[in-house]
Design brief:
By secondary structure, the chain is α+β, with helices and mostly antiparallel strands. Helices cover 23% and strands 34% of the residues.
């Protein structure tokens, strides 16, 4: 790849930049190349995408991750690229995710703690562990031990070997993000034109009727490093929890334990059918999990849900 000769690059090769977002960036800011992406203002990119589509939620930190990946891609080019770089800049050599999980059953609420070394992947070649309960200390000790082993392995190499050493994985696994775009309440569920309450803005402007069952639809996207979703996550599960704002009681509203992903569709929908709530004000929390990739999940909370 020669960034000095090509007029444009496929920005969608970077995880999180979908073809739609690439189009917004090109049309709104004229960004055609990786170098232009690196040197652009993160705030301008965020505002440009939001201005094109209010439902596209992009943070400045997310844009900076895109720029970091673009910088890595340009650095791999044999031709020099004039990109400002601070001497002694901190770079990550290991990334860990600690996930505190919960589930509800007849015995009540249970907890589990999982830790993953992200660079290792989530398949059999990756590193990780799990414990029952909220094992904060155990997770911290595991991360410290694993990081020290990585440092020890690096120090065994000479500086020349460290500089030339390339990461090798037996089976590259694209990192996948689940982005919940919005919610829809369908009530009543059997009418030809039911009332649809759109929760994209995390607020519902109309109440739900307590005496009528409703379907809850979770709308989300899968984005993988290198491009759009390519089928490495074939199934997801979904759960919805409600907390009564008056009593503080939390319960599982509904769940879908296994649903296939439609590879040819950008937006995915999980349907949680035939739900019903008593009158009151609730907090709604929804979770979508990738069954084949532990720790990959999307989360959305609606702070106020009125049921009349």
């Amino acid at each position: 790849m020669d960034t000095t000769k090509q007029e444009s690059h496929n920005l969608a090769d970077i995880s999180g930049i979908s073809p739609t977002r690439q189009q917004y960036i090109r049309e709104g800011l004229g960004i055609q190349t990786l170098k232009q992406l690196v040197t652009a203002s993160p705030e301008d990119i965020r505002d440009c995408i939001k201005g094109k589509d209010i439902h596209q939620r992009v943070s400045v930190s997310q844009v900076k991750r895109w720029q970091k990946k673009a910088k890595e891609l340009t650095a791999a080019d044999s031709s020099p690229v004039d990109i400002p770089e601070k001497k002694g800049e901190w770079t990550a050599f290991a990334t860990y995710v600690v996930e505190f999980q919960e589930r509800f059953n007849q015995k009540g609420q249970e907890f589990q703690t999982q830790v993953h070394h992200m660079e290792g992947g989530y398949d059999g070649g990756g590193r990780g562990d799990k414990w029952q309960g909220l094992a904060v200390k155990k997770a911290g000790q595991w991360i410290e031990t694993d990081a020290l082993e990585l440092v020890s392995d690096t120090q065994k190499n000479t500086p020349d070997k460290v500089h030339k050493r390339q990461p090798v994985a037996p089976k590259p696994i694209p990192q996948t993000a689940i982005s919940i775009q919005g919610l829809e309440f369908i009530q009543p569920i059997n009418e030809e034109h039911p009332t649809k309450l759109d929760g994209t803005g995390r607020m519902f402007t109309q109440p739900i009727h307590s005496e009528t069952p409703f379907d809850l639809r979770i709308i989300f996207e899968l984005v993988e490093e290198g491009n759009a979703h390519n089928g490495s996550i074939p199934y997801v599960s979904a759960e919805a929890y409600v907390t009564n704002k008056s009593t503080g009681e939390t319960k599982l509203l509904s769940e879908n334990k296994r649903q296939p992903i439609l590879v040819d569709q950008a937006q995915q929908i999980v349907n949680l059918p035939k739900n019903q709530l008593l009158q009151g004000v609730y907090r709604l929390q929804v979770i979508v999990r990738a069954l084949e990739s532990p720790g990959t999940l999307g989360f959305l909370e609606v702070p106020f849900l009125w049921v009349t």
